[in-house]
Fold this sequence. Notes:
Elements: H1 12-26, H2 31-38, H3 42-49, H4 57-67, H5 76-84, H6 92-99, E1 104-109, H7 120-132, H8 138-154, E2 162-168, H9 169-173, H10 179-194, E3 198-203, E4 217-221, E5 227-232, E6 237-240, H11 243-259, H12 263-276
Parallel strand pairs: 1-2, 2-3
Antiparallel strand pairs: 1-4, 4-5, 5-6
Amino acid sequence: MNRRELTPDASPQAAYGARLRSLRESRGWTQDDLADRMEYSSVHISAVETARKSPTLRFSRSADVAFGLVGTADAFERQHREINHGSLLEGFPEYVKYEGRAVEIRLYEVGVIPGLLQTPEYAATREADEVRREAATPEQAEERVALVSRRQASLVRTPSPLIHAVLDESCVRRPMGDPTIMNAQFDRLLKFAEMPNTVFQIAPFEMGARRSFTLPVTVLTMPDRSIMSYAESAQRGHLERETPFVANILTAYHQLTAEALSQAASVAMIEQLRKGFK
Length: 278
């Protein structure tokens, strides 16, 4: 039987496959042995080992069970997620690490509900359209939806971080899925507004040129009171730590909140919109 040589440095998928083979062989298992343990075919095992097939989340979790790596730092699921971070905008994975430790999060979003406020159904609907347009694979879409949940879970801690969310009116006017999904999303926004550690505002269309930003932006305050900002273009995300630059963005954010609707008026808009999605 011909043995195909592996080149782990060729790609993240190749590194994953080489590691899978190495662990399998260290246990004295054949591909058939591992296939039986993972409930996959030996052909599938071979294809992943040689990077002819990308590992899925289900495959990675099954491998972790087979090798006893569930929940460990060496888990294949963890490696799988790192591979799929390549489908995210450059700079975003680094930003998420800081977001999970921030004591204050100030965000402004345009066009869609921001990830920290999305319901799973809203997130899944958005990603399903990415798949339809072939802008993402089903596996990448699944990982992005899972990332939304992980980001939200990381903010459930004591003391709770302050989250100030300003949404352009386009975020709540744009339908995403059927009325059931939108109604659930509106309910999520209303519950968010009721939380003791949140501020919720809508930047209405009539603000016009008085908007401070034309693209989404987030400002983080860290435990040591240092600040950083994150902004995205269509091609990449950028994390900025230069204090004078970030201070200017924070000033612009304060100006935005002064012009936006009050929380009470923003909640009233959401309640009115909810009545229209029947």
